Amino acid sequence: MKNIAIVVNNKKPKKPLIKLETRNNLEKKIRQQSDELESKSTQLKQGIDREKLSTDREKIAEERIHIQSKAMESTLDGIFIVDAQKSGFPVIYANPSFFNLTGYSKSEVLGKSYFSLYGVDVNLRIFEEIKEILQEGKSFHGEVLNLKRNGEKFWSLLRIAPVRDNKGLITHYVGIKTDTTLIKQRDSEIQEQREELLHVTRVGKLAEFVSSLAHEISQPLTAILSYAQAAQRMFKDREPQLQEILQYIINDDQRATEVIRRLRTLLKKTKPTFEPLNINTIINDTVTLIMPQITSKNISINLKLDNDLPLIHGDRIQLQQVLLNLISNSIEAMDESPDPRELLIKAFLKEANTIMVKVRDSGVGIPPENMKKLFGHFFTSKPDGLGMGLSISRSIVEAHGGHLEAENNIDRGATFNFSLPIGIKETV
Amino acid sequence: MSSNIYIVDDDESVCRALKTLLMTYDFDVHTFNSAQSFFENVHPDECGCLLLDIHMPGMDGWETHKKILETGSKRPVIFISAEKKDDAAKRAFKVGALGFLQKPVNGQTLVDLINKATNS
Fold first, then answer.
1. Residue A421, burial from CB neighbour count under 10 angstroms (0-12, 13-18, 19+)
2. Which of residues 44-73 of B touch A (CB under 8 A)?
3. Could you tell me the pTM of the whole model?
4. Going from the N-terminus, what domains does chain B have, and what CATH number goes with each?
5. What's the domain range around A233?
6. How many folded domains does chain A comprise?
7. What pLDDT score was predicted for residue A426?
8. ipTM of the predicted structure?
9. Among A211, A215, A217, A219, the residue to mutate for chain B (most B Cβ within 10 A)
């Protein structure tokens, strides 16, 4: 710019006789040229910048592609890309995890139809479904059971989405496969444990119910038998017809007694298996089992379990039963109560040889008149309750050498707490 | 002279029926609906066999028996219970009772056991 200006200045003194208009014209021309030059220079500069920019961009893009492809190679999810425009959807790319997951090698996968892989014999219907969805240009999301190359079954979460070009045309499909076998296994283990516990609880309830019923019925049967035998003696050697009737009463009394005896034998409670147990493990396991109910009812749960608690000696299932019962009661007690609904479970060392477990809720609490009857047989405050839960829980805790008690909290809700002696053997 | 029989059972009907039955064997029968009422009315030195229910509200049969032993009384005790506890009979013998009978109690079996107690 500067140079050009100098050239212009130099020209001036050499032609001093130029007319005023001409001079004006000249100035105009020079200005035009100078403007042109300036704009050309700007253009040139911009051109250089653009070039530099595009190399920078290329570099960044390259780096990005590198990172992206590295990421695809490193992820544990199986990733694959299929060509959407060729029939049969041939696989054009698959990452190492895909090969690990399916057990197929690169040459067995690339170029082959996606559906020819691991769909064989397993849930063909689902693969038809996937095919249809893809042909309609939609995405697929679902859990499928696959076969590995060696025939081993595995569950996976499969997501397939279309990849479109600039015009919106589907050129490829990208799929992600996540092995969910472990999650599935864990889920089914939890489900099994829940079933087992529920079964034991049901059988336990029934056994306790029958035992209570048997007790209640045995009392009048005792009275009836005694009255009949007393009458037989009173009328000894007299009134043969009355004697006969009394004998029938006695026989039927004994028949009823026999029915009860058989029922009792049938529902004999399985003997508890006592072993060294970590109470925190039992609490955590039980909470896992009942978590779906806790979350569905919008209850926040807080576990305050002291570390390094000594082991107790007990029956795992029975103690889970107690906890499940107390937690379920707490959940039900909070049905009508306003938020926040809080469930607190604590485990701590009370004395040198006693562990305390507390289950605290923010529910309706226990009416004072129910406090005494709470642990009795057949006592229930629920419309469909049997009234067995707490009485069974108490007898379980007592069989472990502990105590189960209830109290209302000062603010709201109730707390059930039970103690368990450390490492003490079966007491009954 | 007829011998004394004491019955402690929270079920009034059971008390009345056993009393009626045992009276036909010429026993002098006294019934109580709680252990407390028994202790209040019967001196430890008064003779007589005790039929003791196990499952009772308040002081149960085992506790009652323990308290009797603590007073130094030599009273023969027969446990009776409507509850089925396999180890109850064993436990009854272990604590020094005369025996354990499952409800409903057969009159003759009961009387035989009482006679065994009063004769020995």
1. middle
2. 55
3. 0.53
4. 4-119 (3.40.50.2300)
5. 184-266
6. 4
7. 43
8. 0.88
9. A219
